[in-house]
Design a protein that fits this description.
This is YjbH domain-containing protein. By secondary structure, the chain is of the alpha+beta class. The chain folds into four domains: 20-212, monomeric porin ompg (Porin, Beta Barrel), CATH 2.40.160; 230-370, no CATH class; 376-654, Porin; 699-894, Vanadium-containing Chloroperoxidase, domain 1. It has 16 helices and 34 strands. A hairpin with a 2-residue loop joins strand 1 (20-28) and strand 2 (31-41). Helix 12 crosses helix 13 (780-807) and helix 13 (780-807) runs antiparallel to helix 14. The two termini are 44 Å apart.
Length: 923
């Protein structure tokens, strides 16, 4: 009923198949739920519910009829289930879950549950669990699946929810319900499912659709045009004839344009046929380049020795394919040689600016004389039901199509909608220079009926959305110039100016860097903005700002991309926005974002003690998985709990990372060829159908590190010597405790002391971040040392916190007791002074790097930062010395134990008439 895998109202330890997206509607009085659920990771199921409560008004008791049109109470709920252990031969599956993680938490609960299947056909499933406060106590569930009627199941459970404690239960049917057994009947047919259940005194029902987004596509490409056939090419001519008569190049351009290639440039240079182009329809890079190469091979003049194809985005060169053996290329395209044999004759690499063919090619000019771009109505084209469209070979495009928008949870009405006709016009003005525009005519809407004014105390950068929606029926949503540039290999830039979006206009730019290490990328975006007026034409408001956001994008296993943006947002607040998204095999992307800034949004839904932070989830679906022909079009939505002003960004005129992301992903997948030849015998090849990039089990590596650390632990004499040295250092520091604290107390509040204290507070986080950066971006040696550093940090922090509780020393500035000594006991057992946790972490972080790279100056960096805690009167000198000793000792021990983590051997062995080489590596 809640969208999670389980029985009726009770959960199981099962999670749906990886990548499954489900949505449905259930009713179990007094609750109705419109829900969506997804298995975001193979072991993590997330659910969002929009729960209505019959019998309770949404805004009852509000003055002046506020919210009277809202109807019954509705609440947004987010649930999560984490499967800790999958089911084994003997062991059951084990999962923990949490309900109503955010917001009002009317249905908050936690549970743990175990599930086991039985029977020869494993068609019996039993679960037992416990929760609090919802479900409340022990619960159980069982499912019997019929073997004679596939898809039909009988379910039963002991419902342990204490409904009488639910929100306003005394005024709803929940107050009449009690825990007890429930029986149900369910049926699954393909993607569809339904369930009906009998409770003690009522029935409940649930219906849903489950879409397996882990599959590559749902429909065969029956309407996909075939690749270019060589029999349709004209008779081949010599290179001299090609150069003399521009019609030969024009014929190649026309053949490519008919296959939806755009921005086509062709050049014959000393036996090399060079092409620069893009394709706005074909979704796979390798497949697009394969079709272009097949066509170029058919038109290439006699004597051509090689073909170079440079694939572009907005005329910026991204990837270059060089084919050196045209006979081998022909054999591969016709299925005569294997992919492995063909790979020796092709080079796939990042493009440089020199790879791009210039605009002034005669063949192009001749081809452009017969453009053939016609305006016409298209039905069911690239995912649009109907559209009026025209597009030429230079990607100049005009389109008119219907659009629908929905808004939830305004007090004056739970659902608001807008139906509109949207027109887009994009015009190429020069190399990399485009005019992009969008116009909207609202046809039918009820958003203008919104009455609630924004209560935000921040500049109203987004929360006045209702004013914009009712400002005018006709609006210019976008009208701007975009200039795209390639500064160097893997370095791109954009400069923009004009009307960015419905709310803002301005000027700005972006720079994107794509390193050869394909795990990460970085960009910087700066925009000077002015808020547009409500009418949506050229009117304006008084608000102006400059936003500046630096972004780091990093790819993890399971095709997860983490993006961290830091800088200045629209409301002039500064902070960080974290984005997580997972790409499934189908190309569907599921993600979420969370923003933390200094905006301090304390008005409802925020409070002074818990300011609101912007957050939400999003889904992007490539339409090609559901169409009979290929397309790059996508459909998507994003949902945020509230429309607020904190942590907001302007809509990008053309985000460079999004533009380059898919091309780069295809480039680095296996051999970069993708579905290049479109051969039937290769559809299961890893390059065509890549396997999921999963995370290897960490346990073998973890076990090795533990074994190494234990085997090299200090001996008893070493322990004794180390203890004596550490004790002497701490006693020497204790002698300085009072003199130093008296000096610091006299100068406390000065700019120098305050700055030093800030350094001391931030140093552990900075050093831990540096260690994590070494793991993420370093070579194998630095990654190993970074991992040792992180282990040292964790172990030192644990040792330090344990010692704090045992010693219980008061901090400087606290009451020292009758003796006036610095080692008096503190009542705050969790926040005592000895030793300094900051010092322990700082020295633990730097010690492995200092010893591995012979860099003793790192100890000085840790010492200066640690003494900042003394300058801030948070610790005594002896606390810092003790913490430093703990961090140094643990860091040294783990470095000695784990520094040699190569476990990779390369050997060359000469023989009498042979030379052999071997490489062994262990993972």
């Amino acid at each position: 009923m809640q969208g999670q895998s389980g029985y009726i109202n009770m959960p199981s330890a099962v999670v749906e198949k990886d990548g499954t997206f489900s949505m449905g509607y259930s009713y179990d009085q007094p609750y109705s739920s419109l829900w969506v659920s997804t298995t975001a990771l193979p072991f993590l199921q997330l659910t969002g519910r929009y729960v209505g409560i019959t019998g309770v008004q949404g805004f009852e008791g509000a003055a002046n009829g506020y919210g009277s049109e809202y109807g019954r109470n509705k609440d947004k709920v987010v649930d999560a289930k984490l499967q800790l252990l999958p089911e084994g031969h003997w062991m059951p599956a084990l999962a923990v879950g949490a309900t109503d993680l955010l917001g009002t938490q009317l249905f908050k609960g936690r549970y743990i549950v175990a599930t086991k299947t039985f029977g020869p056909a494993r068609n019996i499933e039993v679960s037992v669990g416990s929760g609090s406060p919802r479900p409340d106590g022990l619960f159980a569930g069982a499912r019997w699946s019929s073997l004679g009627v596939p898809g039909l199941s009988l379910v039963a459970e002991y419902d342990a929810n204490d409904y009488k404690n639910d929100y306003r239960a005394d005024r709803t049917a929940a107050g009449e319900r009690s825990a007890g057994p429930v029986l149900g009947l369910e049926y699954r047919w393909g993607w569809l499912g339904a369930q009906i259940a009998r409770h003690r005194d009522h029935f409940s029902a649930n219906a849903y659709v489950s879409i397996p987004f882990s599959e590559r596509e749902f429909l065969p490409k029956l309407l996909e045009p075939a690749p270019f056939q060589p029999k349709n090419a004209p008779a081949r001519v010599s290179a001299a004839e090609w150069q003399k008569d521009t019609r030969h190049g024009a014929q190649l351009v026309q053949a490519l344009a008919k296959q939806n290639f755009r921005n086509i440039r062709v050049e014959l240079d000393s036996g090399t046929l060079r092409l620069t182009l893009t394709n706005n329809r074909i979704s796979n890079l390798g497949r697009a380049v394969g079709r272009a190469t097949r066509t170029a091979l058919a038109f290439a003049p006699r004597g051509t020795r090689s073909i170079h194809v440079t694939y572009t985005r907005l005329e910026q060169p991204v990837v270059t394919y060089e084919f050196f053996d045209l006979q081998r290329l022909t054999d591969y395209l016709t299925g005569l040689v294997s992919r492995e044999a063909f790979l020796h004759t092709v080079l796939v690499r990042y493009s440089t600016p020199a790879d791009k063919v210039a605009d002034d090619q005669a063949g192009l000019v001749a081809a452009m004389r017969e453009d053939g771009s016609a305006l016409g109505v298209r039905v069911n084209h690239e995912g649009e039901m109907v559209q009026l469209r025209s597009e030429d070979r230079e990607a100049n495009k005009f389109k008119v199509a219907p659009r629908a928008s929905f808004f939830f949870n305004d007090p004056s009405g739970a659902l608001r909608y807008e139906l509109a006709a949207v027109s887009n016009y994009d015009k190429r003005l020069g190399e990399g220079l485009y005019f992009n525009s969008s116009f909207k005519l609202s046809l039918l809407e009820n958003i203008s009926g919104v009455t609630q004014a924004s209560n935000s105390e921040l500049p109203h950068v987004r929360s006045d959305i209702a004013e914009y929606k009712r400002g005018s029926r006709f609006k210019i949503n976008r009208a701007l110039l975009n200039k795209y540039m390639t500064l160097d290999e893997r370095l791109y830039a954009r400069v923009s100016g004009g009307l960015y979006e419905e709310m803002y206009r301005g000027v700005g730019g972006q720079v994107l860097y794509l390193p050869k290490d394909t795990r990460w990328a970085a960009d910087l975006t700066v925009d000077a903005l002015e808020q547009r007026g409500f009418k949506g034409l050229f009117d304006k408001r008084d608000y102006r700002t400059v936003t500046a956001l630096g972004a780091m994008h990093y790819r993890l296993p399971y095709d997860i991309t983490v993006t961290a943006r830091a800088g200045r947002f629209l409301a002039k607040d500064e902070g960080v926005r974290l984005e997580f998204k997972r790409r499934l095999r189908s190309g569907v992307e599921i993600g979420a974002w969370y923003t933390k800034t200094n905006g301090n949004d304390i008005t409802s839904p925020g409070t002074p003690s818990d300011p609101y932070n912007d957050k939400g989830i999003f889904l992007s679906v490539p339409l090609n998985i559901m169409l009979l022909s290929d397309t790059q079009s996508t459909a998507g939505f994003a949902i945020s709990p509230w429309t607020r002003d904190v942590g907001q960004m302007v809509a990008s005129p053309g985000d460079l990372y999004e533009i380059m992301e898919d091309v780069r992903r295809d480039l680095v997948t296996v051999d970069g060829l993708g579905n290049f030849a479109e051969r039937k015998d290769e559809q299961n090849h890893p390059g065509v159908n890549p396997a999921l990039r999963t995370m290897p089990s960490p346990w073998p590596e973890f076990r090795w590190r533990v074994e190494q650390s234990v085997s090299t632990s200090p001996t008893l004499p070493q322990w004794a010597k180390g203890t004596m040295l550490a004790g002497g250092a701490v006693l020497a520091g204790a002698a300085l405790d009072k003199p130093v604290d008296r000096f610091v107390s006299k100068h406390q509040g000065t700019r120098a002391m305050d700055a030093w204290g800030d350094v001391g507070t931030a140093m552990p986080a900075v050093l831990a971040g540096a260690a994590a950066g070494a793991v993420a971006f370093g070579d194998s040696r630095m990654q190993n040392i970074g991992l040792i550093s992180l282990q040292s940090i964790g172990a030192s922090a644990g040792m330090s916190m344990l010692t704090k509780r045992i010693v219980g020393r008061t901090r400087p500035g606290e009451a020292q007791g009758a003796c006036g000594c610095t080692f008096s006991r503190s009542d705050k057992r969790s926040d005592t002074s000895f030793p300094s946790n900051h010092a322990a972490v700082a020295f633990a972080a730097v010690t492995p790097f200092a010893q591995e790279y012979d860099a003793p100056w790192l100890y000085g960096l840790a010492a200066v930062g640690s003494l900042g805690r003394v300058a801030d009167r948070k610790h005594w000198v002896s606390d810092v010395v003790a913490g430093g000793v703990v961090g140094y000792a643990i860091g040294s021990w783990l470095w000695q134990a784990q520094r040699d983590n190569s476990r990779s051997q390369f050997a060359v062995m000469p023989g009498a008439k042979s030379l052999s080489a071997s490489w062994n590596t262990a993972y």
